[in-house]
Amino acid sequence: MHGIRRILCCLGLRGDCDPVLDRAVGLSLATGAELHVLHAVKSLSNDVVNTLKVNIRDREVLGGLMQQRLDQASADLDRCIETFWQQHPELRDAYGDRQLSRSVLEGYPASVIAHFAKRTGSDMIVLAANKRTFTATYAGKVTKGVIKRARVPVMVVPARIDAS
User: Residues 6-26, buried b or exposed e (16+ Cβ, 10 A)?
Assistant: First the structure.
């Protein structure tokens, strides 16, 4: 038994969607694992929140604006997933009618991802390196934070570098 029943695919929505989803869907197909896609929206700093509270006195309006950030991220995630399926019809066909679940959560992304993986019983995390080359560093701050916090294997997908 391969031991991979649930895969958590984390997308930053900054051009990393296609290669990360490609790897996560391929792993899901190969192992038969459930696939969950997560986007973590970075929380606003306390200074920004305090400035908003001072300038927007109506708590309903402020709450609506805060929710709007999450709603926009959710719509962007849905678009990313739909674009992926449109660009990879062979994977869509292979994936069939299996459920691909998704979530958008707010907080410090590395912490949100590691906590979500633990809470959902994920057996593997797949996410982008978030860096273009290995000469600077192999991974971005969020990726390094996930690697540090995760209690399951983390697959880091390098950024695609188009050949000229």
Answer: bbbbbbbeeebbbebbbbbbe
**Residue 140, phi then psi, degrees to nearest 5:** -80, 180
81 burial type by CB count under 10 A (0-12 exposed, 13-18 middle, 19+ buried): middle
Token representation of residue 9: 């695919």
> Cβ-count burial of 39 within 10 angstroms (0-12 exposed, 13-18 middle, 19+ buried)?
buried
- What pLDDT, on a 0 to 100 scale, did the predictor assign at position 1? 47
Residues of the chain predicted below pLDDT 70: 1-2, 130-139, 160-164
Q: At 119, phi and psi to the nearest 5?
A: -65, -35
Q: Contact 128/113 with Cβ under 8 angstroms?
A: no
| Pairwise CA distance, residues 110 & 130, whole Å | 13
Distances (CA, A) of 135 to 118, 132, 160: 32, 9, 15
Determine which helix (DSSP H) or strand (DSSP E) holds 40, and give its type and residue range: strand 34-41
Farthest-apart Cα atoms in the chain, separation: 57
